[in-house]
């Protein structure tokens, strides 16, 4: 029995040594940060999906149907047309719901709601991946 145990130890040791591979698999791993090459087109900016819930109402609180809603990427005043990331129309219930990818640095999303040359804008805070706003003109047409 002891004699068989000795062979078992020798065979196990040989298998362990044979399993160690110091060979190259063809994958080159940089050893320092200076050796890493990042393409010039790489963007370090992160993005996140934000769910938007926009409601438009008339002064009497009835749903405003067909209001154009535009979502912008930057908090520029006034925002330019090249910064529009989403556009939609409010439905029969006066709501437009959508999801957009925005830069992760943004804490609020710029929105504009407009109808026939009259518009309202808002910088809506993003909370837990959601931004919710109600556009409703005051009584008296303001």
How much helix, percentage-wise, in residues? 10-25%
* Beta-strand share of residues: 35-45%
Shape: elongated
Give the name of the CATH superfamily of the domain at 47-135: Aromatic compound dioxygenase
Instruction: Supply the number of helical segments.
Output: 1
Order of strands in the sheet with most strands? 3-2-5-6
What's the rounded overall pLDDT mean?
81
Indicate the radius of gyration in whole angstroms: 30 Å
CATH domain class name of the domain at 47-135: Mainly Beta
**Contiguous runs where pLDDT drops below 50 for at least 5 residues:** none
CATH topology (fold) name of the domain at 47-135:
Protocatechuate 3,4-Dioxygenase, subunit A
Taking the alpha carbons of the first and last residues, their distance comes to 99 Å
The total strand number stands at 7
Q: Summarize the biggest pleated sheet.
A: 4 strands, antiparallel
